[in-house]
Amino acid sequence: MDIKKKKKICILGSTGSIGTQTLQVIEEHPDLFEAYVLTAHSQADLLITQAKKYRPSAVVIADESRYEYVREALADEPIQVYAGADALCQVVQMEPVDVVLTALVGFAGLRPTLSAIEAGKPIALANKETLVVAGELVTRKCMEYRVPILPVDSEHSAIFQSLMGEQSPIEKIILTASGGPFRTFTPSQLKDVTPAMALKHPNWDMGAKITIDSASMMNKGFEVIEARWLFDVEPAQIQVVVHPQSIVHSAVQFQDGAVKAQLGAPDMRVPIQLALSYPERLESTFPRIDWWDMKDLTFERPDLNKFRCLQMAYEAIRMGGNAACIVNAANEVVNLAFRQERCPFLEMANIIEQTLQKMAHQENLNLDDYLACDAEARQVADSFIRRL
Ligand code: NDP
Ligand code: MG
Fold it and tell me: Is pLDDT of 14 > 90?
């Protein structure tokens, strides 16, 4: 990395779990990194506080109703204030931006990510939903504009790190999963789980949506799809292995049978920092593994009958076209409905499956097709919830 020039970072979703940890990484290396653009959806006060502290060139509040409030609060600062979803697509293209870190949640990440790619900006990708929904289109655009995607998701960062220095083909990816809070639950126990129970993840402190996805293992299903696109492998080459301690972050097996893994204490700042500093590694004060404190490292087969969302993700890749877009949209609807106690835990998988069955299959989608498919799938999923 050119140490004379600070990397100017646009953080989409700076008020979230990944966004705030990205700001911590920037703070650790003020000589190397600069928060150039910060964006939020609804947390206007936190965005204002961040803007006053990190002094970016621009901020975006995606929720337009909060625009005046943010603008007035930052009136005395040399910071441009924008609002709305279209503004996200514009700020990522600002000329000085060196890298766009996508830490916003859900389908909302697709348009700004594509816009950043079209401006030739490297992507540090946390927003996995973008690859789940439109992996084919996004990877094609990345080739066309010669834009790298650096994974922030801990498993994909581990795979990426295991591939560093390797030229040989991948035989298999070993994608580890903590198994979430309900790993040992029986199907009848799963029937009655509450949002509060699901929001307590054993190893990671994350945003609400991904925490629920982890409890249903939809998150691991999405990570299978994410790995398929990031590393250009067939679904059959991706083996999910439940590893409750979350120390082995994932691994790659090569054709001679050798397996390379990346290990570490569960801390998202490590993959965030590497995505920003690659190809270099920087110093950090983040926690280290205490080997004497390490008890068992265990590995189990995932129960696909219990965690049907994981199975459905494999099915969506097999179907191709708009299938994963439908699964993602239905999942966003049921995930929110579960958190609002409008949908029982086990109904989430049923509704995603019914939505996938009801929608027409479509191939070769462009951005408008994905937008239309997402909107329709949300309506269909919502109608199933209202019938519960
Ligand atoms: P959070 O819910 O904590 O944060 C989401 C961020 O996105 C917030 O800044 C939020 O703004 C913003 N946002 C939400 N909706 C919109 C929208 N419609 N338009 C624009 N911005 C929006 O999520 P996480 O940080 O946990 O996750 C972010 C992404 O990273 C997800 O895709 C997740 O799957 C992925 N990821 C997260 C990990 C983690 O440890 N948290 C690990 C691996 C991947 P506001 O808060 O102001 O409303
Ligand atoms: Mg992950």
Answer: yes
For a substitution probing ligand 1, which of 18, 20, 82 has the most ligand atoms within 8 Å of its CB?
18
Q: Give the model's pLDDT for residue 1.
A: 52
Regarding the beta carbon of 128 and ligand 1, being less than 6 Å apart is answered yes
Q: Is residue 39 part of a domain?
A: yes
Domain extent for 167: 156-266+291-386
Burial of 350 (0-12, 13-18, 19+ CB in 10 A): middle
pLDDT band at 322 (very low <50, low <70, confident <90, very high): very high
Q: What is the CATH number of the domain that holds 189?
A: 1.10.1740.10
pLDDT tier, 203 (very low <50, low <70, confident <90, very high otherwise) = confident
Q: What is the dihedral of CA 311, 312, 317, 320, to 10 degrees?
A: 150
Model confidence pLDDT, tens digit, residues 273-282:
999 999 999 9
Q: Is 201 in the pocket of ligand 1 (CB under 6 A)?
A: no
Among 105, 138, 137, 140, which residue's Cα sits nearest to residue 123? 138
Q: What is the pLDDT of residue 4?
A: 61
**What total of structural domains would you count in the chain?**
2
- pTM score above 0.85: yes
pLDDT tens digits along 207-264 = 999 999 999 999 999 999 999 999 999 999 999 999 999 999 999 999 999 999 999 9
Q: Residue of the nearest CA to atom 7 in ligand 1?
A: 104
The residues, any chain, with a CB within 8 Å of residue 365's CB and separated by 6 or more, are 134, 136, 137, 321, 322, 325, 373
Q: Given ligand 1 and candidates 25, 41, 216, which is best to mutate, with the most ligand atoms within 8 Å of its CB?
A: 41
Task: Looking at the structure, tell me whether residues 231 and 108 fall in a common domain.
Answer: no
